[in-house]
Amino acid sequence: MSATLAPPPDLPAPVVSPVSGPAVTTATASPAGTRRLPLATQPRTALLAIACCGVFLALASGRLWHTDLWDHLNYGKLILQQQAVPLTEPLLPLAAGTRMVNIPWLAQVSMKLTERHIGLAGLQLLAGGCGAFAVFLTAREAARRTRSAFAGLLAITVFILVNQHELQVIRPQLAGLVGYCITLAWTLGTQKHSLKHWIGFTLLFALWANLHGSFAMGLALLAIAAVGRALDVLLHSRSAALMLADPQFHRNILLLQLCSVAVLLNPNGLLIYPEIFAVSGHPNTASMFEWQPLTLRMPHGQIAATVLAITVLCVRFSPRRLRITEILAFGGTALLAAWSARMLNWWAPVAAIVVATHLAAILRPVLCRFNARPTARPSLLYTVGCLAVAACSVALTPLGAQLRTGTPPAAASLLSKETPLALAAFLRSQQDLPRGTAWVPAEWAGFLMNQTQGSLKSMVNLHVHLIPEEVWRDYLRVAAGSADWVNLLDEYGVNLVVVDKRAHSLLLKRIRESADWKSLYDDRQSVLLLRRQPL
């Protein structure tokens, strides 16, 4: 009895007959004489690539967010200056001595070098490229599984709808998303184990572990591939012996072990594993909006719930067999997203592939009417067309405008409207600001520290897992304008306070009512206040 359950690489997944129940494999014949030429591209791949060029243009033209992007640039600058990865928190005086396992150090250095040599437009291009490539990988896998460009376009739509917020925020997580989508395409695909796959995944995870902590999600996908394969064999053979003897199951386990060792090629060694759980489980993250549980009160929660409902309906009426690997990947990442809204980043590509695959299976009779002609052969012409559209997309980005004119775009046109540009310019012009720790909104801390070349020492930043719990708790009390704000600022020796008018209106009201503070700067979004008698 054979334990091989997966269809050959060139065949679609088995289809379950609604009458008899057993899996019936159907094949779609390839055009006679089709031979893959070097650099030749299939029509559906070209179509998806062109669609993803539109995604790239949108992402690479989006404004740079004012939040943790600047914290990563600050750490990248420090690493380049010291030529070493810091072992303790180096930027926040109140977190001095706190052990720092800086996993994304390579991404931070890359971002800083890009900003230094190309400018802010280069960061936009880098983020747009990562986001668009992740979307393309997802769409290509959906199209490969169904042999339908419609499924690929549908996957792009679902991916963007569910994950639009995370794609717009430039952070090392975007590099991790690319590695995740590569691993996901293999997990939900044919799970080949050629030499290039062994070498490629080893190198991928070794690099990934120095770019972002999401390598753990990649390892989880490899574990799902192994468990899913084992359960598929067990369910169809009813034999534990065949399951344990399955060669593909053994190879999946070996690949998981190899990649688990490869991630140790980082400056932190074994410390990288406990750090993953330390960040996600740190008490300070509970106060961060994006780390809170996903609810229907959130716009992206409503979108996710809609996609989930559509997925259930598609799976219910789909003639395509649902593999155990799909169930584990979809269900596992859905539970993570319910636990924390930020985990939508990892559920979105899975949901996109599953929805596109099964909806295309339901609509196959309709789609076949529009695909009566034989499938077109791969052609170099499609490749040239894709490259031409990609070049046009780059030319239309802010970096393209910078290359054409030789002048970088104005910062105001590249940064988000919430970025305190005017306040930063005022701070740079001041030579006699009080020394010591300043109370600055965590969302602005990285940007203002970056713009003042580190002369402004903030109480906190958005790397909240590095901040002592008591310090973060006191920061939040001041931000909320609690009655003991005066005592807290006195306790920390704060002589300078920056207030976001929109977010900290009560704090601003109470400081202005105090005779101990004076306003030094005031604009439509921020106020800078100094203590009249510095501590």
Q: What do you see in this structure?
A:
It is globular and about 80 Å long. Helix 4 (120-146) runs antiparallel to helix 5. Mean pLDDT is 89; it is low at 1-34. The strands form three sheets. Strands 5-7-6 form a three-stranded antiparallel β-sheet, covered by helices on one side. Strands 1-2 form a two-stranded antiparallel sheet. Strands 3-4 form a two-stranded parallel ribbon. The protein has helices at residues 43-60, 68-82, 105-117, 120-146, 149-168, 173-187, 195-208, 215-237, 240-245, 247-262, 272-280, 299-317, 324-339, 344-362, 364-369, 380-395, 398-405, 411-414, 421-429, 442-451, 469-479, 485-491, 505-513; strands spanning 15-16, 23-24, 437-438, 457-458, 496-500, 517-522, 526-531. The protein contains 23 helices and seven strands. The chain starts with 14 loop residues before the first strand and ends with a strand. The protein is mainly alpha-helical. 58% of the residues lie in helices and 5% in strands. It has two domains: 40-380, no CATH class; 421-531, no CATH class.
Topology:
Elements: E1 15-16, E2 23-24, H1 43-60, H2 68-82, H3 105-117, H4 120-146, H5 149-168, H6 173-187, H7 195-208, H8 215-237, H9 240-245, H10 247-262, H11 272-280, H12 299-317, H13 324-339, H14 344-362, H15 364-369, H16 380-395, H17 398-405, H18 411-414, H19 421-429, E3 437-438, H20 442-451, E4 457-458, H21 469-479, H22 485-491, E5 496-500, H23 505-513, E6 517-522, E7 526-531
Parallel strand pairs: 3-4
Antiparallel strand pairs: 1-2, 5-7, 6-7
